[in-house]
Design goal:
This is N-acetyltransferase domain-containing protein. By secondary structure, the protein is an alpha+beta fold. It contains five helices and seven strands, in the order E-H-H-E-E-E-H-E-H-E-E-H. It is globular.
């Protein structure tokens, strides 16, 4: 199993797994093509999980309007591949990248019937917070403060 940050070359597989996610969770508000393309920008990211060269999972990072704040979206692992640690690996890859590009806080929303997801988020250090968006399907809002990353280039600029 492999988890990696997707490039535009991966967009077909990424769109397919996101569509499976949307259908399985009955997502009402779906990404526009412009929103999807933005996931490949430096301040965003789309991570894919592959098993035997098949895309079986994803997670998305996108910036929020407040500098240093990002949002976790679309964490999903296909049925038949759950329980193998892929969700943890996807979240770790996203969080490592978010810290590397100096995000201080990550936010996410979910629904109260997604108990396994809520448990994963809590185990990963996310805590409940106030509503931060207008997602009509979300009932739970969470956030996590990322540990400061050692960034030598910033230290050199400040000396």
């Amino acid at each position: 199993m492999t988890v990696y940050r997707a490039t535009l070359a991966d967009k077909d597989g990424a769109k397919q797994i996101i569509e499976v996610y949307n259908d399985e969770l009955d997502i009402v508000v779906r990404d526009s093509e412009q929103a999807f393309q933005s996931y490949f920008e430096p301040d965003s990211g789309l991570w894919l999980a592959k098993v035997d060269n098949h895309v079986v999972g994803c997670v998305i990072l996108r910036p929020l309007p407040t500098p240093g704040h990002g949002e976790v979206k679309r964490l999903y692992v296909a049925r038949g591949y759950r329980g193998q640690g892929l969700s943890h690996k996807l979240m770790k890859a996203l969080e490592d990248y978010a810290a590397q590009i100096n995000y201080e806080w990550l936010y996410l929303d979910t629904k109260d019937d997604l108990e396994a997801a809520i448990k994963l988020y809590e185990q990963s250090g996310y805590e409940r917070c106030e509503r931060y968006n207008k997602n009509p399907q979300a009932t739970i809002f969470m956030r996590k403060r990322l540990a400061a990353q050692h960034n030598p280039s910033k230290e050199q600029q400040n000396s």
